[in-house]
Specification:
alpha+beta, Rossmann fold, 9-stranded antiparallel sheet, 8-stranded mixed sheet, 15 helices
Amino acid sequence: MPTKSCAMRRRTLSSVGRLRAVAVAGLIACGAVGAPEVAAQSGNAPTLTDIVEARSIDSLVLSPDGQRLAFRVIERSVARNSTTAQWYWVPMGEPAAPVALGSPTEPMWVPLFDFIENGDAQWDPGSTTLYVRQAGRHGIQVHRLGPQGADRTVTEDPADVVSFSISDDGKTISYKTRNTREAIANAAILEQRMGIHLDRTLVTDGLPLINNFRIGGSMASLRRSGPSEVLPGHSGALATKSVAIPGRDPVQDRPAKASVDQRSVYTSLSAETGLGFKLASQRTAVSLETVGAMSKLLPVPKYELTATSEAGVKSPCREVFCVGFSYALRQVVPNESNGEIVVLYEADEAGRSVLYGWNPLTGRSRTIYDHRTALDGGSSYAGSPCRRSGRYLACVEAGPTQPPELVRIDMETGERVTLSDPNRSLARKAFAAAELLSWTDESGRPANGVLMRPKGASTRHPLVITTYRCRGFLQGGTGSVVPEHILVQRGIATLCVNTRSENIAERGPDGHEILLGVHKASIESYRSAINLLSRSGVIDPAKVGISGHSYSSNVVAYALSNTNLFAAATLGTGVTIDPNTYYLTAPVPDSWRKSVLRSMALPEPTKDTSKVWNHISPSLNAGKITAPVLFLPPENEYLFGLQLYTSLRDAGGIADMYIFPGEGHSAGREPMHRYWRYRRALDWFAFWLTQREYASPDTVDQYRGWRELREARNVTGHLSTQSPEKGVSTRIQPRPPHQPDS
């Protein structure tokens, strides 16, 4: 807990730049977030390879008797350029070493996006054997795993298994498939010979049209099946099948134990888990009641925790943690032993989970657990819950300087026990201190992020802003573009800024959607943070860089052409708010992706009678961009970035691009690709913000090219000295191909 003097210092400085939570001048003294004491006291600093190879934990599966917890550890190896998934189980009672199940295999990847899929696993009814869906020699099948590498394929179907479930008696497996692998391959060959028809299913973003995604040991040709759904072409409809479970379980049998209470409501999956439960000890029904109607722009439910007595009297919880959107009021659990409702709550999307207890009978509340870290089920892209067994919650815990760890938390005492720590050596490295900052922008919107400063220096630092989610262990923001922990080693401060989802739902005075409203709101949060840190003497406002990926690539590109906030930038994807992006993603009249423009209140470029695109497109305003821009896109998105890249170069600006072959949206399938994306971004920011080169034999050509870009800028005088807002450029704006005259 912070000391009283720290709290007073925070209040004193809160009026400066509308800082609400933390005194920047006392960041380290007033409580670093998520940093184990040993990390600040011993060990060497983490290396770039350390950050790439940080192990993640996901796919928590509790056995029916509540005694065993299965989970996966995802491991990346730069040396082998491989990513593997290894299943384990660990007892929920007395701590013991995790038991490996089966052997390491390559995880399955979400098509086109290249996120690692959540593991699909289920215990048998006797809580002795784990069944998983994974890729192997026979495609994607259901496997039965056991200790010492035991792995038996159960389904052996000519088609890949999409999902499965085990019968209540444990004798059969019901599973779903689509067309057989052979049928899909034959249909694809025929289509290739006859020509591929351009329709809304065709992926036109940058990957080859055929054999563009590896599933298991074979290549598939992806096709869109909905606004965000992608499947191998010619997959066909789902079919349900079943198979008897053969042989004896490879895990030693043991007598079945009485089941423990596993009830839990995870709000993001409320359609599956339900929205309430009975609290027998209080003779009370507990429910999460919807507050108001869901916004069309922000289709996320908002809940209020309410208790209803046997007599029908409702008692809503009045605590702050009892009301919130599903991304804040994340999980609700009954604790019969003390009559409490336990709430896992995250305020302001800051990635800081707190366990609270509320007694509906007495109305009393308390804080059970607050380590200034994130608690969840470990999924890298889709929220997943902690698992509950009686009085315990099993969670993956991570913080800005704390790599993922599997922990058990006692909901009564708050006691924390480590179940598995695959990052023990990394956690002992010497990380710079991290601090959670909160502020408001000039319009009063709240914002927050994680600040890290170079050790031992008292001068103003260059700053790199990373975006747009900072949950858990810092690895360069969404998309892992540039690693904060290595930037601070190079003398550059970092601020990872979270994006506030509620900004999406803002409307103008006329009640209509605001053109690029959420993007402009993000930029204002960056501006306010820069001003605050500059006034506090932490940073040099003339040396601020920014990285963006996915949504924030759009934001960064727009900011570069509309402000002079940034002296350098990297874009982890090629996606920008430019006409070319529209033409690539929505080429036919019924394209699903046309909805993306509507969500930003943008007209289709071909129907832009008001010339909106001429004002908001970064490419059509490339002459206003003064910051050097490095593009680091995956292959399936580099075409998006060509319009801005070419427009920048033609306008005399500075741009460079490295494309990572075979990668999807997250560009993280190959560890070597992640390593080099990181390294290029690190070198880029150091080159432009500190004028330093970190050369090696591998980067000779890189730096030669960048020095040539710098010399060309010095000759042409492209660097602007405008005021913080962009003025009107005197250059003739380049018009990319296929754009109508103004």
